Amino acid sequence: MLGIPTHLAPRVNAWSTVRAFHAAAIGSLVAAALLLLLYRIDAPDDHVLAAVLAVVPMLVMIGVHTHVGTWRSAAAFLVVGGICSWWFATVVQRELSEVPWVSSYLLSLVVVPLVLIGGSGSGTVRVVLWSVSGFVVGRVVTSIAAVQSGGPDHPLVLAWVTLGFVIALVVAVSRSTARSERVQPELLRAAREEHVTAYRAGIEAEAAAILHDTVLNHLNAIALAPAGPMDEHLARTMESDVAMLTGRAWLAGGTTAPDGTEPADAASRAVAAFDRMLDEQRATGLQIAVTGDPSSISRLDPLAVTAVVRAVGQCLANVVKHAGTDSAEVSVFDDGVACTVMVVDDGRGFDEQATGADRMGLRNSVRERIGRIGGDVQVWSSPGSGTSVMMSVPYGAVRDAAPVTHIGGDDVERAS
């Protein structure tokens, strides 16, 4: 019941139950007609075809009531069904008086639809009243037919069993619906709280990654800088990052130029953000060769563009800090399903298994960041053979992606 809104659950349950009752009623009438036809074949002197014809109007009225589904159509079925049941019972009492158990069974089969058809409302009391009314109508007309034909008044055991089953089923469904109405709000509230918690965890993880990408990287740059005045580019970058951290642009996932100017269309903004990130890394002295089709990034969702640009920037920052080389290659290609970016260097490389679990650069700023937008990261590296980081993000993945809140212990990092 969790997937059905609370206010619709009673109506859905009632609709399903009524349709099942209609199918059972049709099956009961068809069974009665087939039994009479088989009996006619076995005893051709008995005139039971009139009873078979009595079933036809009832089948027609079931179809009408199924299509219309109002109390008027239900009442019309009870009237037509009562007349047809009397007709049916009169023929059966006259022609099959010698086999009373067969007569009782056939009469029950024609009364059962009167019990099953009629519950047009979703209320328990209403359905039960219709079923009892149908049973009473069937019992009265079969008794009249018995009196008129001078035969015994059969007990209609199957009709009694059907009435008891209908009442028990309707009461059970009603109680189940009431229980679901009490429990479902709590389940929905728990699901909503879980979603909010996951979303908050994703925001906190992104905040930690941005803090690492900016503050920690700047502190590292200051520590490595020679004595004297601060490099002008580093100072401008720090000023821009401070403005970004104290504002809310990072929360929205924006990639705004320091001077505030941005291209009008989203595709140009994505390419401009990617180029701007490359220029910032080149300003640190890193030689970057770009291959493939960088414009493929523009096909990503804006949030995915921001994540990819930041993740590639962190990979390049890792090259500067850890690889021991002044060159790297960035390859961008599109396979029609996903945008893939590779950052490759021929530096000293590293062994992931030997890297401390407290290293946050590759884990928070690359793996988890790409994971939060539904992407995947693969790293190939070993001491002395350089490092290759491949980030693949399916187009449109952000809409279906859930925040990544935990990475296994094997995902160790090399950068801090």
From TrEMBL:
Domain of life of the organism in this record?
Answer: Bacteria
Q: What is this protein called?
A: Signal transduction histidine kinase
Q: Which residues form the Histidine kinase/HSP90-like ATPase domain?
A: 307-395
Species annotation: Curtobacterium salicis
What are the protein's GO molecular function terms? Answer: kinase activity
Transmembrane stretches, by residue range? 20-41, 47-64, 71-89, 101-120, 127-148, 154-173
Check the record and name the Pfam families matching this protein: HATPase_c (PF02518)
Would the keyword Transmembrane helix be found if you checked this record's keyword annotation? Answer: yes
Which InterPro entries does the entry link to? Answer: HATPase_C_sf, HATPase_dom, Sensor_HK_TwoCompSys
Q: Does the keyword Hydrolase apply?
A: no
Keywords for this protein = Kinase, Membrane, Transferase, Transmembrane, Transmembrane helix, Two-component regulatory system
